[in-house]
What we know:
Layout: E1 10-20, H1 28-32, E2 36-45, E3 49-54, E4 63-69, E5 74-86, H2 93-96, E6 107-113
Antiparallel strand pairs: 1-2, 1-4, 2-3, 3-6, 4-5, 5-6
Amino acid sequence: xxxxxxxxxxxxxxxxxxxxxxxxxxxxxxxxxxxxxxxxxxxxxxxxxxxxxxxxxxxxxxxxxxxxxxxxxxxxxxxxxxxxxxxxxxxxxxxxxxxxxxxxxxxxxxxxxxxxxxxxxxxxxxxx
Length: 128
């Protein structure tokens, strides 16, 4: 299978907190409301985005702000939720690679960053 991603992805387990707006991202009234909060674990990271396991279920195409800590810094990044769904019994190749992990969370969020992570180095994380 040909890899379409622009940046190399690294499997990891990092705690993450996030804020997102539910509803229509084109509606300025909806975006002005207080954001909802969630947390989870980053299972996969690259300069361009992350893959999160969480108990929080969201829609797609929603703006999101994430906050997580690497081995040597705290990263706050904005992005868009590009895919989401349930983890269990999901036949996709993306989730098959995490089948060996003990994942208790029931949902996933794939997030594309608005801007690539600057100076990201795989030495910042513990790679699985």
